[in-house]
Amino acid sequence: MTVSIVIRAKNEAGAIGETLERVHQQVGAPVFEVIIVDSGSTDGTLDIARRFPVHLIEIPPRSFTYGRALNLGIAAARGEFVVALSAHSAPLGDRWLANLLEPFRDPTVGAVYGRHLPRSNATKLELFGMWLSGVTSETPRRQERDMMFSNANGAFRRGLALEHPFDERLPGAEDLAWADWIERQGWAVYYQPSATVYHSHGESLGKLLRRMAKDQPTIWGLKLGILARRRAAHGVPAPAWRE
Questions:
Q1: Residue 26 — left, alpha, or beta (φ > 0 → left; ψ -120 to 50 → alpha)?
Q2: Average pLDDT of the residues in 193-199
Q3: How far is the C-alpha of 192 from the C-alpha of 78, rounded, in Å?
Q4: Phi/psi of residue 130, each to 5°?
Q5: Which of 2, 18, 39, 150 could disulfide-pair with 64, CB 3.0 to 4.6 Å?
């Protein structure tokens, strides 16, 4: 098994050092490479990243989308498996990576994502959203019809991402759209709570709402698509607005 860890970053000087230090402390996992795709940091993020053995890719801020940055990292990756990790997602423990990769022993699993533990600065609204999404759960689960996935702490077969790249047009929730696609191709997504990271934003209400606004059009589009497919599978005519 060969592994590439892709980290998307912009102005993450306050967190990326801890994240990279914990990544390089992993044991029990295959040898891995770390690729950082930076979209115009100006706060010292690049200086910190260069202290570690990483492959650094720099792109102009204006060209950034979540999907494009990740696709660039995937194109540069050499691993059979790619781990997508947020620059402010600090792994908990030295077996985070081994645990994240373990479900791939099942050849029907196309993607795996791990648990998120909030930092002390997480707001009540953010905590509620994390609970609602299921990323704080301590119970593992296999998903075949649930589009939930997370590129803040997730892994996938690189071949699938090359076959169907992450949508570069989406302003947010590109990970959910991709998970929906692989499940429709017959692959399973696995939630692995033992692969835990510290991840939350602690942002103001305004910033949180703006971030949610980027995700919601994609999420609701996916939900409506899933509903339409289920209705069609049961022979229920589509509502008039879809005809």
A1: beta
A2: 95
A3: 24
A4: -65, -45
A5: 39
pTM above 0.70, yes or no: yes
User: What is the total count of domains within the chain?
Assistant: 1
Amino acid at 211: R
d(CA 57, CA 37): 5
Residue 212 is assigned to a structural domain of this protein: no
On whether residue 218 sits in a domain, the answer given is no
The H or E element that residue 70 is part of is: helix 66-76
Quick: pLDDT tens for 9-35. Answer: 999 999 999 999 999 999 999 999 999
- Report the alpha-carbon distance of residue 41 to residue 102 in Å, rounded: 34
Residues in the chain, overall count: 243
What is the C-alpha to C-alpha distance for residues 74 and 58, in angstroms, rounded to an integer? 14
Q: Which of 213, 150, 200 is nearest to 178 (CA)?
A: 150
Long-range contacts from 58-64, C-beta under 8 angstroms, 24+ separation: 61/10, 63/39, 64/10, 64/39, 64/40
The whole domain housing 187 covers 3-204
How far, CA to CA in Å, does 217 sit from each of 26, 59, 152, 153, 221?
37, 26, 19, 22, 6
